[in-house]
Amino acid sequence: MNLTRRRLIAISAGLAVLPIAGPVARAETTVMPSARLWTGQALGARASIRLVHPQAETIATRVMQEIDRLEGILSLYRTDSALSRLNRDGFLASPPFELLECLSLSQAVWQKSGGRFDPTVQPLWAFWAETVSAGRVPDAVELKAVLARTGWGRIALSEDGIRLQPGMSLTLNGIGQGYVADRVASLLQSEGLSDILIDTGEFRALGGMPEDGTDPRAGWPVTLEPGGTIALRERALATSAPLGTTFDDTGRFGHILDPETGRPAQSVWQSISVTAPTAAIADALATAACLMPDKPSIEAMIGAFPGARLEGIA
């Protein structure tokens, strides 16, 4: 497996810097505690947390615990996660709320993308990884057999349980990192932090940069992979690239698989960036867009989600 996109989780957050009106309307700045920085591992990547808060160390611990808890639900790399148990057993009774929510969001994007965003491609993903690592490419007959074990319409989804047909399995790699970013943002807000930027591979921004006292409306400056920059505030940004991760070292076979053909996306796009009110939706839309045939189709799909926008395409 060849990874070309960075693998670093970065979280930066601080208290709002607010003016205090004096007796003659003189503006002063509240005293900010110094920033504290922690490093570790999260979502299989290096992680850094930079917080400006009197209880920064305690909050950083809670963030890491929350990420760990979510991995215990959504991760394919933990054999005891709720998702792994569902894939192994084909049924999960009383599924965690977070798994249900993530799958419900996935279903919404599946519907609006014409089935292009489909978490049931996991058997295809595993088969491609296995065959390419063995030095060959899957043939049409093999792909047809694996495709028979996919299809969102074959999932039974409810609060009582999730049931998969025999041979099916799910992946949340096209939405899970964004979903985790949203949940971490909510946690930090509940702790009283108001200027937040979370980078889990997808960006989630609230408020502005704590160091920037020039304009309280200024967003977090983020460079778009297709080119240009954006000031991100109260929004999320996700970028997907068909060849961002490849099954082979030569970079021919990308990780975004077409659920109709079973093959890697044959896209003219190098990368696509989407913003939305939540990172989960931005993440899923950017992934689905890589399988769209033209820009009008991408814009029509994104337009079906309130507040979502196509920000860059190359």
What does this structure look like?
With 314 residues, the chain is α+β, with helices and mostly antiparallel strands. The protein has eight helices and 17 strands. The protein has helices at 56-74, 82-89, 97-112, 122-133, 140-147, 176-190, 279-289, 295-303; strands spanning 2-3, 8-14, 19-21, 27-29, 36-42, 45-52, 91-93, 156-157, 161-163, 195-199, 203-206, 220-223, 229-232, 235-240, 245-246, 272-276, 309-313. A hairpin with a 3-residue loop joins strand 10 (195-199) and strand 11. Helix 1 runs antiparallel to helix 6 (176-190), helix 3 (97-112) packs parallel to helix 7 and helix 6 runs antiparallel to helix 7. The longest helix has 19 residues, at 56-74. Residues 1-6 and 17-32 have low confidence and may be disordered.
Short description:
The chain has 314 residues and is α+β, with helices and mostly antiparallel strands.
**What sort of overall outline do the alpha carbons produce when their principal axes are compared?**
globular
| Neighbour order of strands in the largest sheet | 5-6-2-10-11-14-16-17
Helix content: 25-40%
**What's the overall average pLDDT, rounded?**
88
Provide the low-confidence segments as ranges. Answer: 1-6, 17-32
Largest sheet descriptor: 8 strands, mixed
N-to-C CA distance: 24 Å
Structural class: alpha+beta
How much β-strand is present in the residues?
15-25%
Tally the helices: 8
What Rg, in angstroms, do the CA atoms define? 21 Å
SSE order, as H and E? EEEEEEHHEHHHEEHEEEEEEEHHE
Number of E strands: 17
